[in-house]
Write a structure and sequence with these properties.
Elements: E1 2-3, E2 7-11, E3 18-22, E4 27-31, E5 37-40, E6 46-50, E7 53-60, E8 63-70, E9 78-81, E10 87-91, E11 96-100, E12 106-111
Antiparallel strand pairs: 1-2, 2-3, 3-4, 5-6, 6-7, 7-8, 9-10, 10-11, 11-12
InterPro entries: 6-blade_b-propeller_TolB-like
């Protein structure tokens, strides 16, 4: 689930679709996007990760409009951002963290090989 000043976006557990609730219009829309990790970035656009890609969307009248896709990741499960706009995608099963620019460019892949095996 991700929350911004204007929207709540969550994954429907039954269908896997995204449910977008607009606080202003109080309307709910659905999107066929299937994303695992969701977060609104510092620019109020929605970020979502799904195994092999990271996508950035703006929400326009309750509909997702894709801004870019980064296809340079594998095993992505969750994400977070920092105050500089960098995006971090965790691939726990691969013991990696991908660092991605706010424009969708893969900057670095960090290995966290010391992660205990019970977390993989």
């Amino acid at each position: 689930m991700a929350i911004s000043d204007g929207y709540v976006v969550a994954t429907d557990p039954d269908t896997g679709q995204l449910v977008i609730y607009d606080f202003t219009s109080q309307q709910t829309n659905r999107s066929s996007c299937h994303l695992l990790g969701l977060q609104f970035g510092p620019d109020s656009n929605l970020l979502g990760v799904c195994i092999s890609k990271l996508q950035k969307y703006k929400i326009d009248n309750g509909q997702l409009v894709e801004l870019w896709t980064c296809n340079d990741i594998k095993g992505g499960e969750s994400l977070c951002t920092d105050s500089y706009g960098l995006i971090y995608v965790v691939a726990r099963s691969l013991k990696q963290i991908y660092v991605i620019s706010s424009q969708g460019e893969l900057l670095q892949t960090l290995s966290h090989a010391k992660l205990p095996s019970e977390y993989t």
